[in-house]
Amino acid sequence: MKRSTLVISIILGIVFISTVIIVVAVILKPGKIITGDSGVIAFIPLSGLIAESKDASFFSSGAGITPTFVRHQLERANDDPRVGAIILKIDSPGGVVGASQEIAELVRDSEKPVIVFAGDIVASGAYYIASQADKIVAKPGSLIGSIGVIIKVADLSGLYAKLGIKVQTIKSGKNKDMTDRTLIPEERKKLQALSDETYRQFINDVAKGRKLSKNKVKELATGEVFSASRAKKLGLIDELGGYQAAVDVAADLANIEDPFVEEYRPPTFLDELFGGPGIQIRDLIRMQALGRDFLLLERIQNTYAAPQYRYYGGQ
Questions:
Q1: Distance between CA 266 and CA 135 in Å, rounded?
Q2: What is the pTM of this model?
């Protein structure tokens, strides 16, 4: 059996087994039906990179966070008369600017109180989103902050040489290809101005959301992360604690005496395999046919060097 055929067979086998497991789980464990007025707290887990679409990241971990997914989940919670408050469990190093801003607006405009419960990390774009919530709860060791902007420009000359590719560029607009090679000083200045503008937007929105002065936020906007215990002292979060603390804060905001937490389904293994960020099934097949280097090159070329609200620590 050829290697590519074997890989595809293994993948299809995994898909079949996963489907059976999911079906059995649904049959054997039906969801609990709750009655009553506003006694439910909707718990929505969000993890991975923030991107405009699920196909936007090549090597990301987690299911990914997109405006479409968050919008659907928040609309579901806001439209459910049983739900009195919403907890967003966020574990993310951030991501692209536009998607982060769109999700932050969804959180800010929610009809019902939104509490962010921090996972291991709520950084950069993820903190941008969290700053618009009514309250932020985090475990003492969670990493919080990274208020800043980063632009990474890929110099592809080494990869082109490895693949034996010679590029001939025809352009209209002198800066049209500046994110595809080594930058000259004038081009670096332009990208720096773009970074500075999105940085100011970050500071302004955090100041509004957290009810802090712009000068205070600017002092904290060094791009570094803080432990949650330190972040609380700095005014970046509200409470220290775990899951129960987040539930208690949500119940208090919604005036719920005996809350029931209803966890909204996170993306499943099948969602991630077929539609989530990261290496998808079609990528695995194409990787076998074209080779990993060509697939990587294609992804890099399709990713414009734009400002990102993203923390790269440990990567």
A1: 22
A2: 0.76
Which segments in the chain show pLDDT lower than 50?
Answer: 22-36, 56-62, 273-280, 289, 314-315
Strand partners, 145: 123, 225
Q: Which of 57, 60, 100, 124 is catalytic?
A: 124
Query: Number of structural domains, the chain?
Result: 1
Residue 248 belongs to domain spanning: 3-27+35-310
Among 152, 162, 176, 189, the active-site one is: 176
Instruction: Let me know if 124 is a catalytic residue.
Output: yes
pLDDT, tens digit (0-9, with 9 covering 90-100), for 52-64:
876 544 444 446 8
> Has residue 251 been placed in a domain?
yes
The yes-or-no answer on residue 176 being catalytic is yes
The answer to whether 76 and 264 are in contact (CB under 8 A) is yes
Q: Is residue 315 part of a domain?
A: no
Alpha helices in 136-220 (DSSP H): 157-163, 185-210, 214-220
Q: Mind listing the pLDDT tens digit for each residue in 259-294?
A: 999 999 765 555 554 444 444 455 555 555 455 555
Is 20 inside any structural domain? Answer: yes
